[in-house]
Amino acid sequence: MTPSTLVPDEPPIARIAVDADEEATDGLFRAARRAHIDLDEVEQLHDRVDADALDTLLSHHRRGDADGEFTLAVGLWDHTFVVRPDTVEVYP
After folding, report:
1. Order of strands, edge to edge, in the sheet holding 14-17?
2. Which of 21, 22, 23, 90 has the most CB atoms within 10 Å of its CB?
3. What is the pTM of this model?
4. How far apart are the first and last CA of the chain?
5. Which DSSP state fits 20?
6. Distances in Å between the alpha carbon of 76 and those of 14, 65, 68?
7. pLDDT per position in the chain (92 positions), as tens?
8. Integer Cα distance of 34 and 54 in angstroms
9. Tell me, what's the pLDDT at 1?
10. Residue 29's pLDDT is what?
């Protein structure tokens, strides 16, 4: 599967810009809050995703020495999150 087939065809219910000095996981949590996901009622992010690896991967792609685009689509909290170096989108 190519990354574009993992991204839903519908518009996201939330989309946030990730600041250049922001960790990917912080952006992911901000996007979840914007999508009105009750983070107190869901399993911990670390139970589903290696947050340190996600932050490191995003940091690597921001430095500009990585080849190609970076898109990660992951199912979390009954939603699809699409993480790119500069944005996080949430889909139903």
Report:
1. 14-17, 87-91, 79-83, 72-76
2. 90
3. 0.79
4. 20
5. T
6. 14, 29, 25
7. 444 557 888 999 999 998 888 888 888 889 999 999 887 766 676 667 777 887 777 776 666 655 557 788 888 888 999 988 889 999 99
8. 20
9. 43
10. 87
Domain ranges of the chain: 3-91
Six-digit token pair at 21?
């000095």
- Look up residue 73 and give its amino acid: A
The per-residue DSSP string of 36-68 comes to: T--TTSS--GGGTS-HHHHHHHHHHHHTT-S-S
How far is Cα 68 from Cα 19, in angstroms, rounded to an integer? 20
One-letter identity of residue 31: A
